[in-house]
Amino acid sequence: MSSSGDNNNNNRGGDGDGDSSITYSSLSAKSSLKRSRVLYAMNPQTAFIPTADPTILNDSINRRKQRVARHYQQIDHRGNGTLAIVADYPANGASTINNNTLQMKPLSSSLSSSSVTSSAMAIQKSNVTRKGEERNTTNDNKSGGILVKSNKSSSNRLKIPTPTWHAPWKLSTVLSSHLGWVRSIAMDPTNDMFATGSADRTIKLWDLAKASVGASDALKLTLTGHISPVRGLAFSSRHPYLFSAGEDKMVKCWDLETNQVIRHYHGHLSGVFCLKLHPTLDLLITGGRDAVARVWDIRTKTQIHVLAGHDNTVASLLTRTTDPQVVTGSMDSTIKLWDLVAGKCMTTLTHHQKSVRALVEPSFENTFVSGATDSLKYWQAKDGKFLKSYSGHKAVVNAMAVNDDGVLVSGGDDGSMHFWDYKTGYNFQSGTSIVQPGSLDAENAIFCAEFDGTGTRLITGEADKTIKIYKADEEASEMTDPIDMVGWRKKCIKESKQRY
Fold it and tell me: Residues 88, 195: one domain?
């Protein structure tokens, strides 16, 4: 303050000195304003204006008020800011804001930028009128609140699907006739009988109605001809034929009217692990240990295509009426979608980390599910788009089946069985297969599974040499076996944070 006193003494001394003092005073005012701005930004509580001239002091205060008003307008347009400005707005009808009602609240230097931003503006009145327009500053809290730009939107909210209730399944019948592991099952299109192939190199045909009640005469026929385990079976829907494939590299066509082999399909270089018929064409597709899937003409026994591209055994197959008409799963952990006309691969899916040993497709959706040790995965069939993972089955999944009611079952190498709601992936039942008396506890692996034509019976082939038939519990209801929505919601939230 001594500098301003010296300036006053110089003004009384002479005219020449007065001119220089006026120039010095104006420079001092400008520099003092700059210093006040800097000091206020550094520490508002100790900032001061180094001048005693009331004109300069009032001018500085007015400039500060103008800066406050401009800063408030910038905050209002951006939706956030760095200074907390408390405004007492008129209750109604005001078109302008009186600068005298604005108060600068000094922010502590210890506050972090995140806390300053989150509490940028405290609004005491919710309805603010500016420039002739009334703006509602808060939608949810009408008594006032903090203006915060929300990053959440309705599109980002997790939508948890509601599972369809299904009755739990229970064991109904056990059939024991094979002398080895039961490796394959096929249902007759008429739903009168089913066939099983075993490691004892035989194929057995069973009457479904009698087998469901455990009748002693359920076994109708035994076919012999393979010299290695029978790994694939399929009934033809247009001919009285049964096709079989085994680890002896043979693919056979059986005439069920004469019970004899009428055709052989030669070409595989190693064991054949899976076999499917095309649903509308007279084509047979087989996959094996030679890492290729072969397409055969049923009538001429001609090999039409060799679908090559996998690096390991082709362990599972799907055939469809629309493109992709062939889907293969391999032990190289990939799934390939094939163009049957060109005989070329359309898409390769690499989401799995373990061998894909099972594939299944429902009749009510253009989707399919693949099973591996890491998880079950739900795919869109037309382009192979990944939709969802069904996690929870911690085993080597050898077999899967689905019925028209949307019940998906997966069987593991350790005897575990999981029942899922197909559309949502809700695991509504889990259990373990029980071995027949006289077998080792380790012989409870499930190798194959198939629903009958009505979807009310589930048939499994297991390592204890038995065939087990399951059915839904007729006494169960939504009251006795409710859906665990709390656990399902937690699982959905957890899986939503994972990529695959």
Answer: no
